[in-house]
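Example 4.3 (complexes with small molecules)
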Amino acid sequence: MRIVLVGPPGAGKGTQAAFLAQNLSIPHISTGDLFRANISKQTELGKLAKSYMDAGNLVPDEVTIGMAKDRMEQPDAENGFLLDGFPRNVSQAEALDETLQAEGMQLDAVLDLEVPEEEVVKRIAGRRICRQDSAHVFHVSYKAPKQDGVCDVCGGELYQRDDDSEETVRTRLEVYHTQTEPIIDYYKAQGLVVTISALGKVEDVTARAMEALKREDHVA
Ligand code: AP5
Ligand code: MG
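Answer. The structure with magnesium ion bound is encoded below.
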């Protein structure tokens, strides 16, 4: 099963991806998390990515597409994957289609998470992530860690992402509307888009997503 998760920054893609990937037994592949892992290891890729991420802009396709492809070729992704944050513009979507077609594969669904902008801003403002693994995500009021500043999963230090400042969030939202939203129409033309509201409790959104994927026959 091959699924793409799309939605504005702060919509809850990473949060939902963790549960959906578990329910569907496929790996969660987040290009944002891959870049952040490179930043913490101080690789060349990490240094390059950081300059774009801190400004709220997309990392160039040349590096992003290669990195995503490498990850999708890992053995755990042989029978499917849940992509979070990739593709993020039409040329990445086309590159993904070409890669899959070359292997005789195709996407099963594109899950579009809808959240009003004022909610997205609240979710981002209170988000805290783990220094050891940026997939461990908390929120100061919606999902508070048991101990202030400490990750429930691995004990790592929680911090606020550098790109979660008000100004950078504004740019990220603009980039989402101008560059990422067009992929929704691109995938609508292929009949792949399943749109759900991502408002409400995390577990209710997961249930809604699973239901919608099954109802529309995208997932057996
Ligand atoms: P990325 O890391 O993908 O960031 P994003 O798309 O901006 O999305 P976020 O991670 O901010 O939000 P999310 O939807 O995952 O929400 P979350 O689950 O954390 O990308 C970062 C940067 O990397 C980009 O700006 C770009 O520079 C670069 N990049 C990445 N991919 C790229 C690509 N393909 N091409 C080029 N550049 C790329 O939830 C948010 C908060 O809300 C959390 O605190 C959570 O606890 C809380 N929350 C979640 N669900 C709920 C709920 N139902 N109710 C209440 N609170 C909730
Ligand atoms: Mg995320």
